[in-house]
Amino acid sequence: MTEKPLRIVMVRHGESQWNHGKLFCGWYNCPLTKTGENEARQAGKALKEKGIEVDAAFSSLLLRANQTCDLILEELGVKEDVEVKRSWRLNERHYGDLTGQNKVVAVAKYGADQVKLWRRSYDVAPPPISQSNPYYTQIQQNKVFVDVPKEEFPTSESLKMTTDRSWPAIKSGKTVLLAAHGNLLRGLIKNIDNVSEEDIINLNLPTGIPFIYEFDKDMKPTKSLEFISDEKIVKTGLEKVKDQTTKTYVR
Fold first, then answer.
1. Cα 92 to the chain's mean position, in Å?
2. Does residue 250 lie in a domain region?
3. How confident is the model over 179-233, as pLDDT tens digits?
4. Strands 211-215, 6-12: pairing kind
5. Catalytic residue among 39, 75, 92, 157
6. Catalytic residue at 181?
7. Is 185 contained in some domain?
């Protein structure tokens, strides 16, 4: 009997309220918009149409990823059967003192090159979040983070720092759903596909569109970044992400 390949279905959470407002979100715990909920449901429907069955699910401690995960499992008809393992190590990167700032305004304030470096580079972190930041207390005292070790609670993170703390323990021979965040998934893709630090800057991921990785027994990818969606939908989703710091996206 041929052993099933390890398959990871990755999906960036659907549009959140702060995605819609073009705000740096990070560890701020905002929910999905109605559009984001619809994106998550559509992701579940797309997986169901492809006959993809999920054995286990992983998500972060953040609401937008949890909602996305639950809605996908609901569409697959397995919400009551699949255990979701949630970990702070799968949280979005901490955006430091950029948290809550509008991305377009940040470009005007700091310059496009600096903001791109903070957003997209591998090893450059934004300035640490200060106590004067309006969201400092909400993040530091959020009860969902009660089990995060104090010495590991970040005040700002680069993509490298986020990736180093993120890889979950996944059993072989399973199809795993990983509902998480754009930067966290970018970091995993960099490591899995050996993407260079220069090229990872230009990697964008659309919200709410699942993509698949498959691995051999040595955890080498045999299938990489295969989107489960119509090519036009993927292209539109990518353009939406690219426009975050340049203009208002019109639906």
1. 6
2. no
3. 999 999 999 999 999 999 999 998 999 999 999 999 988 889 999 999 998 888 8
4. antiparallel
5. 92
6. no
7. yes
Please answer whether residues 181 and 92 qualify as being in contact, where contact means their C-beta atoms are separated by less than 8 angstroms.
yes
The two structure tokens encoding residue 61: 């401690």
Distance in angstroms (rounded) separating the CA atoms of residues 175 and 170: 10
Residues of the chain with pLDDT under 70: 1-4, 168-173, 242-251
CATH number at residue 182: 3.40.50.1240
Q: How many domains does the chain have?
A: 1
Active site residue 92: yes
Residue recorded with tokens 């569409």: 75
Structural domain containing residue 119 = 6-245
| 1 part of a folded domain | no
The owner of tokens 């509902």 is 179
Share of the chain above pLDDT 70, in %: 92
d(CA 208, CA 11): 6
Structural domain contains residue 20: yes
Q: Which entry of 13, 39, 157, 181 is annotated as an active-site residue?
A: 13
Tokens 């591998």, residue located: 122
